[in-house]
Amino acid sequence: MTQKVYIAMYDHKHGTDMSAHTTYDGAFKANVAIARESLPDWCDWVGGASDTAEYDNFTDEELLECWGEITGYTEFFKVEDLELHKETKEIGEVCSESR
Q1: Can you tell me the distance from the alpha carbon of 9 to that of 21, in angstroms, rounded to the nearest whole number?
Q2: Of 27, 41, 37, the residue nearest 72 (C-alpha)
Q3: Using CA atoms, how far apart are residues 2 and 85, in angstroms rounded to an integer?
Q4: Domains held by the chain: number
Q5: Gap between the Cα atoms of 27 and 79, Å rounded
Q6: Cα–Cα distance, 72 to 46 (Å, whole number)
Q7: pLDDT digit string (tens) for 35-91?
Q8: Alpha carbon distance 96, 39 (integer Å)
Q9: Is residue 8 classed exposed, middle or buried when 0-12, 13-18 and 19+ CB atoms within 10 A define those classes?
Q10: In 3D, which of 53, 42, 29, 57 has the Cα closest to residue 10?
Q11: Is residue 11 within a helix (H) or strand (E), and if so which, with residue range?
Q12: Angle CA(28)–CA(25)–CA(54) in degrees, nearest 5?
């Protein structure tokens, strides 16, 4: 049975923040939490006031879809799924196999 891990990624001017989750929903919600938390800062920067009313009726999906526009295309969110490989070997075994 193949298992997956979902990586929530938040690209911004200082780099990329990542967190691993067992479900897509968990990774998506982690990104939404970051966006909702930082939205007032972007509204300050763009409009001069912490008025987030324009975005109050946005669904989580809509907010993340337009995040590039809100941030002047300087920040982005995505979720990637990766297969989780459960293989255990001693470090010495790996080195001896490659010889």
Answers
A1: 11
A2: 41
A3: 8
A4: 1
A5: 7
A6: 9
A7: 999 998 888 755 555 567 788 889 999 999 999 999 999 999 999 999 987 777 676
A8: 52
A9: buried
A10: 29
A11: strand 3-12
A12: 45
Whether the model clears a pTM of 0.85, i.e. scores above it, the answer is no
Domain range for 17 is 3-97
pLDDT digits (tens, 9 = 90+) for 11-29: 999 999 999 999 999 999 9
Two tokens, residue 82? 């990766």
Under a CB-based contact definition with an 8 Å cutoff, are residues 2 and 87 in contact? no
Owner of token pair 């009313």 = 53
In angstroms, the CA 84 to CA 72 distance is 35
Chain position carrying tokens 């989580």: 60
